[in-house]
Amino acid sequence: MLDMQKIVVLTGAGMSAESGISTFRDTNGLWENHRVEDVASPEGWLRNPELVLNFYNIRRRQLKEVEPNTAHLSLVRLEKKFDLQIITQNVDNLHERAGSSKVLHLHGELTKVRSTGDPRLIYEWDHDLNLGDKCQKGFQLRPHIVWFSEEVPNISIAAKYCNDADILIIIGTSMQVYPAASLLAYSRLDSKIYFVDPSPNLSFGVHNFPNLEVIRATAGEGVPMLVETLLKH
């Protein structure tokens, strides 16, 4: 029996935007009317942990009010014919809720929290997180989110996935935020690459990727069409 082709899908904010989740940073450098440095950095946490907790509590509540969109659901169909691995920069759980079985989160997960004293202690969390909520060792819990200037622990795993991919699909990400933007460099020269984005930023040097095809469409429009094409072939 022939091995299934390996598809790796790298998703960013544009994947979840059509479900109603606001993109990470809009044009004025704010995130939900907050300076990113105040709600997504270790310094912001030390300055005002209550503000940070409240910010993520609101986002966690919002997550319960949205549903996976057609792009999320289309990717699930690919698992029937391909060995599919998703790498996402998003902290929501919409891929999992749609039914994708292999999802690697680069920037953490909104539905988890971890200990400030022992980062190995990670807990599932579906309600508000407050000051005074502690891990089993007595340390304050914080959002399980990779903040600016923090290490991205899953990046080396993601790089290996990209190197193993026969097909790489990039959806709704600017490919400008590192280290996630570096993952394209790990793809093989013989890998087919699809880049789905309505206004793709191609400053990473498309000439270095001879098998790159750009699909100028939103995730909701472009992903279902691409999935249909891949399933037919």
List the helices and strands and how they pair.
Blueprint lengths: L5 E6 L1 H5 L12 E2 L2 E2 H4 L2 H6 L1 H15 L6 H9 L4 E6 L5 H5 L4 E3 L2 E8 L6 E3 L16 E5 L9 H10 L2 E5 L20 E5 L15 E4 L3 H14 L1
Parallel strand pairs: 1-4, 1-9, 4-5, 9-10, 10-11
Antiparallel strand pairs: 2-3, 6-7, 6-8
Give a concise summary.
The protein is an alpha/beta fold and 233 residues long. It is built from eight helices and eleven strands.
Q: What Rg do the Cα atoms give?
A: 18 Å
What is the helix/strand order?
Answer: EHEEHHHHEHEEEEHEEEH
Strand order in space, largest sheet: 5-4-1-9-10-11
| Number of distinct helices | 8
Helix and strand content put the structural class at: alpha/beta
What does the main sheet amount to?
6 strands, parallel
Number of strands: 11
Q: Uncertain spans, ≥5 residues at pLDDT below 50?
A: 26-30
Keywords:
alpha/beta; 8 helices; 29% helix
Task: Give a written overview of the molecule.
There is one protein chain. The protein is α/β, with parallel strands linked by helices. It has eight helices and eleven strands. It has helices at residues 13-17, 36-39, 42-47, 49-63, 70-78, 94-98, 155-164, 219-232; strands at 6-11, 30-31, 34-35, 83-88, 103-105, 108-115, 122-124, 141-145, 167-171, 192-196, 212-215. The protein has a six-stranded parallel β-sheet, with helices on both faces. A three-stranded antiparallel β-sheet has the order 7-6-8. Strand 2 (30-31) and strand 3 (34-35) form a beta hairpin. Helix 5 packs parallel to helix 8. The radius of gyration is 18 Å and the shape is globular. The model is unreliable at 26-30 (pLDDT under 50).
